[in-house]
Each structure stands twice: as C-alpha cells, then as structure tokens.
Design a protein that fits this description.
The structure holds two protein chains of two kinds.
Chain A: E1 4-9, E2 30-31, E3 35-36, H1 39-47, E4 52-56, H2 62-68, E5 82-86, H3 101-107, H4 109-114, E6 119-124, E7 127-129, H5 133-142, E8 147-153, E9 163-167, E10 173-178, E11 187-196, H6 197-203, H7 211-219, E12 225-229, E13 234-236, H8 240-248, E14 276-278, E15 283-289, E16 294-295, E17 298-304, E18 309-310, E19 315-317, E20 320-321, E21 326-327, E22 332-334, E23 336-338, E24 343-344, E25 349-350, E26 371-373, E27 378-379, E28 384-385, E29 390-391, E30 405-406
Parallel strand pairs in A: 1-4, 1-6, 4-5, 8-12, 14-16, 15-17, 16-18, 17-19, 17-20, 18-21, 19-22, 20-23, 21-24, 22-25, 23-26, 24-27, 25-28, 26-29, 28-30
Antiparallel strand pairs in A: 2-3, 6-11, 7-13, 8-11, 9-10, 9-11
Chain B: E1 3-8, E2 29-30, E3 34-35, H1 36-46, E4 51-55, H2 61-67, E5 81-85, H3 100-105, H4 108-113, E6 118-123, E7 126-128, H5 132-141, E8 146-152, E9 162-166, E10 172-177, E11 187-196, H6 197-205, H7 216-227, E12 230-234, E13 239-241, H8 245-254, E14 281-283, E15 288-294, E16 299-300, E17 303-309, E18 314-315, E19 320-322, E20 325-326, E21 331-332, E22 337-339, E23 341-343, E24 348-349, E25 354-355, E26 377-379, E27 384-385, E28 390-391, E29 396-397, E30 410-411
Classes of the chains: A alpha/beta, B alpha/beta.
Chain lengths: 412, 417
C-alpha cells in the first residue's frame, strides 16, 4: 500500500451555518447527537488503516482542538505518525493567514517534504460520509496517477454548488469546473484528493489560493488525473437546511447513514456521562437521545446531544438540541437548532408563527422556518421567539426585547 | 503522604447466581453503562489517588479487559497508575489468594515498591461515592494504625455485618463479625481500611498456624483491636453492597427514583468507565419509554417501563420491558414481554416469548431457594430464548443455553435450565 499522509482541511469559517459556526469551525459542529463533523473523516482514516493524519486549522479552532486532544478516541496518540494539529502562525509583517485550501497546504509544504510518504490524501473536514480510502489509494497507485479525485453523482439541481468533473471512458478526468452554471456532467468532486507527493509540491509552486477554484481547472488538462466514483452516503452539511435535514434523516427506520455498523465505527471524544434518564411522565418518540440526557418532558422527532435537560412539561419537536442545553418547564421548542449550553427559561416558546418571513439580516441563509439559538444564550422565562430567527451566542437575558417577543425574521 | 489503594476484586460472588458465573463480581454491569468496580476506581482517582492495585483471582478476563491499562480513569501513567495483581507462582511456593489479608500479603512487594505511607484497602463490589481524603484525614488526626470506614445500619440488620464497637473518641474497642446479639452497637464495617504501611506489613507477616492472618475481618482486625490504635471513620452517604440478586435488582430500580440521594450526573464526582463507541440511543416512532435508563447504542421500538438498559439493547416493536435490568447488546424480539427480569449480555429473546410469567412471585428457585425467592428471573449471558417461550418466576436460565436445551416451550416458576 502507498505510504500516505492525510491532511484534513478544517480551517474554514463556513458562514452559511450562521450561529453554529460563530464560535467554532465547521469541523467541530456536533452531528447526530454525540459526534462532531470531523469524526467522520478522522474515523474513516483510522478505519482505513491510515494513522498519519494532520488537521489544518485556522478559523476559531479552540473547540476543535479540545475535541481532538492527542487523538485518543481514534487511536491516533502514537509514537510514530499519529495526529498533528497544524495551525497558522504569524509572519513578521502580520501575515501568515491561509487564503484557501491550496494555500493552507502550501503553508505546510515543509512538513510534507519531510515525510517519507508516496501520497498525500487531502480531505475536507466538513463532510459526512463513511468511506474506505484504500480502494481510492489503490486506484491512484494502479493508474500511476498524478492525482485522483473522489467524485459522487449529485442532483442536477445541486451541480452549481460543487466542482463538476467530466470523465473519459478510461476513468481519466479531462475537465474540472468549479460551480458551473451549465454543467457538462453531474459528477461532483467530493473535495477528496490524492496527490503524488512530488506532483503536489510542484503544483503548489505558484500562488493560487484554492484547489477547486484556481488550481484544479488549470492543472487537470496537463496531468494524469483519475476519478474514483464513490457510491455511498455523502452529505455536505454546509448550510443550515442541509445540516438540519441530514440530522433528522437519521430518525427514519433505515437511515442512509448507518451509524450502528460494528465494521465501521465512528469514534468521537465523549465525556463520561451516565445513561439517558427518562422520567415517569416523559414522552419520547422518534428521536435520538445521547448519554447524559435527562428527559422529563416530551421529545418528538428530534436529535438531542449529550447532557440535555428537558424539564417536566417542556416540548421539543422537530428540533436539534446540542450538548448541555437546559429546557425549562413548559417551554416549547419547535423547528429549532439549539446550540450547546443554551438555557431556555420556563414557559418560553421558541419557533412560533409564520415561516414566510425570512431572516432579515441573512435572507439567503435562513428562510425555511428554522430558528437558531447560539451557544450559551440565555432565553428569559415566557419569551416568544418567531421563525427564521437567529440568536447570537452568549446573548444574555437582558438583551431580549422588553416586550418578550422576538418576531419572525429577527436577529438578536 | 503517599497512598496506594488496593482494590479487592477476586471474590466469586456466588450469590449473584449466573451474573457472576463467567465474571468476577466487580465486573458485573450496573446502572446501564458501568461495572460495579467503576465506583471504587472512580472514587480513587476523584480523591487524587493514582496508585492503584487491583487484586483479581476468580474469572478475571472480563475485569482485565475492562480495566486494561486504566485509560478511562487516567490510570495509564508512567509513575503509579493501575496494576492488575493476579495470584502467581514462585520458585518455592505458589498459592491462590486464601483470603483478603492473604491476597495483600502476597503483594506486599508491590506496596513496598510504591513506597506508600498509607495503604487504602477497598472492596471492588460496592456502590458508593466517597472522598477517601476524609477517611485519611480521620486516620491522621487520630494517629491511628488502622482506620475502618463504618456506617450506621438498623439494629435489626447488624447480624449481616462486621460490627465495630467504639468508645466516645471513635476508637474501636471490639470487633464482632455478624453478631447475634444487638448489644454491640450499629456501626458496620464497610470493608474500607486505611493502614499505616509499616503496621500492615508487620501484622500480615506475623501469621502462623496458630495465629493465621488470612482474612482481615476474621483475623487481622480482631488482633489489631486488642493491640493497636484502631479507629472508626463514619460515612453517612449512599452505600450498597449489590451482592445478591435481590439487592442488585432493588438497587437498579432505586436508580430510577429521582429522590434517590445518589446522583450519577454530579459533574464534580464523575463515575468513569470504559465504554465502547456507540451512537446515540434511537427511540422509534411507536416507542413508549417511561422511568428508565437507556444507554447509547440502544434502539427502542417497543415499550420500556421502570427498567435499566445497558448499551446496545434492541427492543423490537410490540415488545414490553417492565421492571427489568437488561445488559449490553441483548436483542428482544417483536411482541416479547419481560417482567421482573435480569437479562445478561448478548441474550436473544425470540419473538413473542413471555419472560416472568405468573402471579405467584414466591415459588422459590429449587436449586437456589435462598437466592431467588422474590419473583426475579435471571437469564445468563448469550442464552437464546426460543420464540414463544414462556418462562415463570424465580427461574434461572444459564449462560449459552440454546433453543435445543429447552425441554418444552414452558419453563415453570422455580426451575433452572
């Protein structure tokens, strides 16, 4: 097998995730209750037998760093290889920030050059999928490729969101277009690239910032680039709506993403919390509950992360509630994403009224009726919050309107 | 002040019936995701004691797997950490541990290597939360040679415990193992001892045919009460010995009581355990769950009431689990009913099977009438219960039993298979 170094790009700011990425990079956003998005590429690596992994961070990395630690949950705390977290450091002129995916890799070229490896596997830190990278690396080696891209077919309606490739009959990629208006195929690049080491070093000699936008369209016609067709579940949860849907899709009887597969366990860092406690008068239906939750109210069609407390009489419906949130007595949470450590006062109603008013500050991002409450916000008792509302992290009780009503489309 | 903790984890725990048939009692699952020894181990590290020996003997594999190198408790350390101490063979002698004191005696070199000033001897099969610094403080304040953790028990139960009779300074003046009379006071020994290392070594080394030093309760402590400074340290929190099927089941059910003075959620005193990586528990659209503990990896599509489920339990649609404890990865088929059951790991319960049937809870188990007589039936690890089977009260189904082993569809109350 090829000796491989994996680089996971986890530095993006992902503004489309609104308040969820206000205080953390997208890779550290919780998913499916107890996981974080980066658990998927990281677990894929170790499940594929790749134990030489670097995670490139930049934007708000603290939560991600805390999650990764020394890499224990993934058995990446090793004497050889293991996990490396690579963060930018300033240059004397105040620069040093990375300006895109290719720039981030270029910044770490010295490390890459020192590695005794054949191939560099570059992964996005913000996709949800289970994939064995070995067949991809094998294809790369068999074809003696300069570069191999993993591709996935997407709906023609979504092609404008991705890098679209066209592939010849021999599996060779002959064209790469970033977010095309008139796509020539529906094969989307998954942001998973294998490079021959020297090839990567050579192409980064220039100054282009981004693989998809600048580098790949230029180099592909003059190189041996192959496509690896991936058929399994793959989701880019980079928008609020996609994030919400991908979470709630786990509630169907046989979800497309099987997290219970003992052959491909997704590993994560979890706090040691006791089992879920469900109270005598609780009602729980069609939901995911994580260890450390205590439910005394009603939870239907929702995903709860560890340590959520649902008081008696409270109702959580069609929502995602992240770690350690506290939902007060008789409060109602409907079609919301509630971030970590939020406190919702007793009797508050969050997510009520018309869904037709998009969020006024970000109408293109928040327009499907979802209300978002940022981490550690404190919602006062009896507050009413409309739909398409964004409440910023750490909003204190006194910052809410005296009227006790936050209308649909508002941002607090 | 260097402290080394020695956890006694070798006992057979016969009164736990099939639950401890294939594993030592400290390794029996409890409260969903934990094992009994997690409470003692977590108490150690939460008290800042990172030098721990675990003495194993009976069926240690499950316990060895669980403790491993001690990662979950941060006991994987360069200095100190956890050490599993099994009975060993020497050039001139070899012997199983004959008792608690003998087990320590055979590992005195471990204690000496750690250069401990104090040795804290603990039992690996009790459920409680305790800061051991408090008993160590008591020990030092009294300049004691030995301090014993005690708690008050009702006078009518004193015959089940080792009872310490103390003077007004809490110095122990008499130790009576399971007294018949009620005049010895009501301070029961919890099996928690703090010894000065030099005294411990001296007392254990002086054993002889006439003066055996095999067991702490029988030999060592009575001898020391007469000659050394032995004090009692009073503990008043929640403490249970889940040593019987009855107390195991009752204690599990107590955990469901929100009024219980034993908070597993207390962030300042986390109970740590080794857990397999599992996704969140999934509750289906037709599920009904009330008053239950459900762990990660469970899938609930039926009804669960007043029950404790360990990780990975699957409850099929139409199945009912009531007043029961179900351990890891057990599969409960559609329409199956469980009532007052303790079901070990990896059991398969066929569709429509009824477990715990019969209005008369008092027909005792014929083989173990003293252990099973309150209506609780127990299924051993990896047993397969055929579809449609009917199992009565106080029944024991041993581990690995298969459909072929069932003489008929019905196992009446009191039987053992």
């Amino acid at each position: 097998m090829l000796r491989t170094l994996t680089l996971i790009l986890a530095g993006g700011d992902s503004p489309a995730l609104s308040v969820l990425t206000a205080e953390r990079t997208e890779a550290a956003v919780p998913f499916a209750g107890k996981f974080r998005i980066i658990d998927f590429p990281l677990s894929n690596c170790v499940n594929s037998g790749i134990y030489n992994v670097a995670v490139l961070t930049q934007y708000k990395p603290r939560s991600l760093h805390a999650h990764l630690g020394v890499g224990r949950p993934w058995d990446l705390d090793r004497a050889q290889g293991g996990l490396r977290v690579l963060h930018p450091s300033p240059t004397p002129d105040g620069g040093g920030w990375q300006r895109g995916t290719a720039d981030a890799v270029r910044y770490n070229l010295d490390l890459i050059e020192d590695q005794q490896v054949d191939a560099i596997l570059v992964l996005a830190g913000d996709h949800i999928y289970k994939m064995n990278y070995i067949p991809l690396l094998e294809l790369h080696a068999e074809r003696n490729a300069d570069m191999t891209l993993a591709v996935h077919s997407v709906s023609p309606h979504d092609t404008h969101r991705f890098g679209i490739v066209t592939v010849g009959s021999d599996g060779r990629v002959d064209r790469f277009e970033e977010k095309p208006r008139r796509p020539l195929s529906n094969l989307a690049s998954m942001g998973i690239y294998v490079f021959r080491k020297q090839f990567l070093i050579d192409i980064l000699a220039g100054t282009e910032h981004d693989f998809g936008r600048h580098l790949l369209p230029r180099i592909i016609p003059n190189s041996r680039t192959f496509a690896f067709n991936f058929q399994g579940y793959w989701a880019d949860v980079g928008t609020v709506q996609a994030y919400y849907e991908a979470n709630l899709a786990l509630l169907v009887e046989t979800p497309a993403l099987d997290l219970y597969d003992p052959e491909w366990v997704i590993h994560t860092t979890s706090a040691d919390l006791p089992g879920v406690e469900v109270g005598e008068h609780a009602r729980v239906e069609n939901c995911l509950l994580s260890d450390g939750c205590r439910v005394y109210g009603t939870v239907t069609h929702s995903v709860l992360s560890p340590g959520v407390y649902v008081s008696p009489g409270a109702v959580i419906r069609d929502s995602i509630v992240l770690g350690d949130a506290w939902i007060g007595p008789e409060a109602v949470v409907d079609r919301c994403i509630i971030d970590e450590g939020v406190r919702i006062g007793g009797g508050a109603v969050v997510g009520e009224g018309d869904i037709a008013t998009p969020n006024l500050a970000a109408p293109e991002r928040l327009n499907t009726g979802l209300t978002l409450v940022g981490a550690r916000a404190q919602l006062p008792e009896g507050l009413t919050v409309g739909r398409n509302v964004a409440i910023r992290p750490r909003t204190a009780e006194h910052a809410f309107p005296k009227s006790g009503v936050v209308p649909s489309g508002a941002t607090v | 002040m260097r402290v080394v903790a020695m956890i006694m984890a070798g006992g057979e725990g016969t009164r736990l019936s099939v639950l401890s048939e294939k594993r030592a009692k400290p390794s029996v699952p409890f409260a969903g995701k934990y094992r009994i020894i997690d409470f003692t181990l977590s108490n150690c590290v939460n008290s800042g004691i990172f030098d721990v020996g675990v003495l194993t003997q009976y069926r240690p594999h499950s316990l060895n797997d669980h403790i491993g190198i001690g990662k979950p408790w941060d006991l994987d350390r360069n200095r100190g950490g956890v050490r599993l101490l099994q009975p060993y063979q020497g050039r001139s002698d070899q012997s199983w541990y004959r008792g608690t004191a003998d087990a320590i005696y055979q590992n005195l070199n471990f204690i000496q290597e750690r250069r401990a000033d104090l040795v804290l001897i603990l039992s690996g099969d009790h459920i409680y939360k305790m800061d051991y610094n408090s008993i160590i403080d008591t020990h030092r304040r009294h300049r004691a040679d030995l301090t014993v953790g005690v708690m008050e028990v009702p006078l009518e139960e004193t015959h089940r415990f080792g009872i310490m009779t103390t003077d007004e300074q809490d110095r122990v003046i008499e130790f009576t193992e399971k007294p018949k009379d009620r005049d010895k006071g009501n301070l029961a020994s919890m099996g928690i001892y703090v010894f000065n290392t030099d005294v411990l070594i001296r007392r254990l080394s002086e054993g002889s045919q006439e003066r055996p030093r095999i067991d702490f309760g029988k030999h060592v402590i009575p001898a020391m009460v007469a000659e050394d400074r032995v004090f009692a340290h009073r503990f008043s929190g929640y403490w249970v010995d889940v040593g019987t099927i009855q107390s195991y089941w009752e204690t599990s059910m107590q955990l469901l009581d929100p009024q219980l003075d034993f908070d597993l959620f207390d962030p300042s005193w986390r109970i740590r355990t080794r857990s397999e990586e599992r996704p969140s528990a999934k509750i289906g659209p037709q599920a009904r769950v009330s008053r239950a503990i459900i762990c990660n990896g469970c899938t609930i599509r039926g009804t669960v009431e007043r029950s404790v489920l360990s990780p990975g339990v699957y409850v099929s649609p139409g199945a009912i689990v009531r007043d029961s404890v179900v351990m890891n990865d057990t599969w409960i088929g559609p329409g199956a009913v469980l009532d007052r059951m303790i079901v070990d790991k990896q059991v398969v319960i066929g569709a429509g099977a009824h477990l715990g049937v019969g209005d008369d809870l008092t027909v005792p188990n014929k083989a173990e009438p003293d252990k099973l007589n309150t209506g609780i039936s127990v299924i051993g690890k990896s047993a397969h219960i055929p579809p449609g089977a009917i199992i009565g009260r106080n029944v024991v189904i041993n581990a690995d039993r298969d459909a072929e082993d069932f003489p008929s569809r019905e196992i009446p109350s009191g039987e053992t298979l």
